[in-house]
Amino acid sequence: FTIILIDQSTKNQFRIFCKENNIQDMEVAVKYFIVFGGLDIKIDTTKPLLELIEKHILDDYTDLKYEITTICGGYKVDQAILTGIAQGDRRTTTSFKRAFVSFEEGSRCIEKIIDRGIIEIESSQHHLAKKRGDDKIAKKLLFTAPFLRFWFAFVSPIYKGIKEKNYKEFFELYENKEAEFGNFVFEELAMECLRDTFTDDPIKQFGRYWDDKYEIDLVAKTISGKIIAGNCKYITSKLKKNELNKLKDDSTSIDLNPDILVLFSKNGFSNELKSQKSETLRLFTTKSFKLLLA
Question: Rounded CA gap, 147 and 121, in Å?
Answer without folding.
Answer: 18
